[in-house]
Amino acid sequence: MNSMRTKQNVIATMAVILWLIPFTQQAVAADSEGGQNSSCVQPRKTANAPEDMLAKTNPLPASSDVLQVGKGLYLHDAKPMACALCHGKRGEGKGPVSGGMMPPARDFTCSAMMREISDGQLFWITKYGSSGTGMMAFPDLSDEEVWKLVHYVRSLAK
User: Fold this and answer.
1) Angle at the Cα of 96 (from 91 to 101), degrees rounded to 5?
2) Tell me, what's the pLDDT at 23?
3) What is the CATH number of domain 41-155?
């Protein structure tokens, strides 16, 4: 009986270790890429944008004018509400209305995470929202305004 319990404990321990390996590898990889660890990466089950949109890159240049307009939208001009209310003024995901959100608002300062999200996906989520999260749609923003926001949001991770 005791040897059976020991075998079960060994199997359970091995299962946990095998489950943890991918997370450990991500942390090591993130640490070796600029010193930022994976604790800022926020896994989501967000639906992908359609293929043609997912592969799209921002058609606007990342000029100071584009970034300035994006910043204005992010901080106060976007309707129905400014991005900073949830994502925070610096983009860390800790805005004044983000408390209790599950999952929490995205931390745009996490360069490891932002590298994994395509411009097209950021555009799509901003324009159409993200089911199962607090991310609402912004259908009243023009495509050009959304692309400016994408540039500004990316600048928060630099």
Assistant:
1) 85
2) 42
3) 1.10.760.10
Q: Are 40 and 90 within 8 A, CB to CB? A: no
Q: Over the range 35-68, which residues count as b (16 or more CB within 10 Å of their CB) and which as e?
A: ebebebbeeeebeebeeebeebebebeeeeebbe
Two structure tokens written together for 61: 């240049």
State how far the Cα of 105 lies from the Cα of 55, in Å rounded to an integer. 24
User: What mean pLDDT is predicted for residues 5-32?
Assistant: 46
Residue ranges covered by each domain of the chain: 1-37, 41-155
pLDDT tens string 87-112: 999 999 999 999 989 999 999 999 99
And the tokens for 111? 């360069």
Tokens of 17: 């270790």
Q: Provide the pLDDT for residue 8.
A: 62
